[in-house]
């Protein structure tokens, strides 16, 4: 995917951040999303937000960025994780090995990060189960599981020794940030808020150029439950929209200076898609994968879990609103409209 073209507003935001001692470090990833933005915050403790996936190329990008800011990787004193995804946390282990930095993350994700391989395996199994139940051919679901498993080398376990509860404040680069849990894109999405500067570190909660996919995953409470990702995400977006953010520094793409407008646009896009999916169910498309296929064609196969997550997210909304019902068979589930 092409990186978005900077705008005068996004550039000005980065200049302002730089004046505050916040350096944006784009780190390459092998994923379709492109580069991830890590942030180095000067002060006490010298803080790195997110670290990229674990790879030679990504380490090189991170080191170059830290050096351009006038520091060495070894100087980093605190690494903060915005959420559990591998493109953000994969390399934290390596950074800690070299710097001895503390690691901070929201308390509910600590177990998941510590048991990286187990957590990933659980996640992949959930994906296969959902794919099969919702109509993706079984052989394709299994191939996709192998592809995902091959990504596991891009990550490593992370020992969080500075867990915080949502709402707690943490100090990064000599400033105090309030933390907020914003589940949706992942169940551990956390944003960091500097009230005085009206500055937020947003992770992947809101991205400038693409809508963050509310990927369905395992709940972090230890239950077998899957997340109601899109329902959670919309609630999280509304909470963020109500905050007077002036600059949001995100995990990918450009700095955001119009978060409320952007959130309105994202929610309107979701509303349109919910209606489209309702229409497809009404026309007799009863399987979620069939719906994905009607919308995206071949992409519904190559990106089976991503597109399925999207459809299930909208069906969750329609279920909650009492507009569709799910008929749970032994092996497959189908949906129909409530007449
Ligand atoms: Zn993510």
Could you explain the architecture of this structure?
By secondary structure, this protein is α/β, with parallel strands linked by helices. It folds into 2 domains: 209 residues, Ribonuclease Z/Hydroxyacylglutathione hydrolase-like (Metallo-beta-lactamase, Chain A); 65 residues, Arc Repressor Mutant, subunit A. The chain has 12 helices and 13 strands. The protein has a 6-stranded mixed sheet. The protein has a 5-stranded mixed sheet with strand order 7-8-9-10-11, with no helix packed on it. A two-stranded antiparallel ribbon has the order 12-13. The protein is globular, with a radius of gyration of 20 Å. The mean pLDDT is 96. The chain binds zinc ion. Zinc ion binds next to loops.
Features:
339 residues; alpha/beta; Metallo-beta-lactamase, Chain A; Arc Repressor Mutant, subunit A; 2 domains; six-stranded mixed β-sheet; five-stranded mixed β-sheet; 12 helices; globular; binds zinc ion
Mean pLDDT: 96
Low-confidence stretches: none
Computed over alpha carbons, the radius of gyration is 20 Å
Named at the architecture level, the CATH assignment of the largest domain is 4-Layer Sandwich
Strand order of the largest sheet: 1-2-3-4-5-6
* The CATH class of the largest domain: Alpha Beta
Share in helix: 40-55%
Specify the CATH homologous superfamily of the largest domain: Ribonuclease Z/Hydroxyacylglutathione hydrolase-like
Tell me, what's the shape?
A: globular
Write the layout of secondary structure elements.
Blueprint: H1 8-19, E1 22-27, E2 36-41, E3 47-49, H2 56-68, E4 78-80, H3 86-89, H4 92-99, E5 102-106, H5 110-114, H6 116-133, H7 138-150, E6 162-164, E7 169-172, E8 175-181, E9 190-194, E10 199-203, H8 229-241, E11 247-250, H9 259-282, H10 288-296, H11 299-302, H12 304-320, E12 324-328, E13 333-337
Parallel strand pairs: 3-4, 4-5, 5-6, 10-11
Antiparallel strand pairs: 1-2, 2-3, 7-8, 8-9, 9-10, 12-13
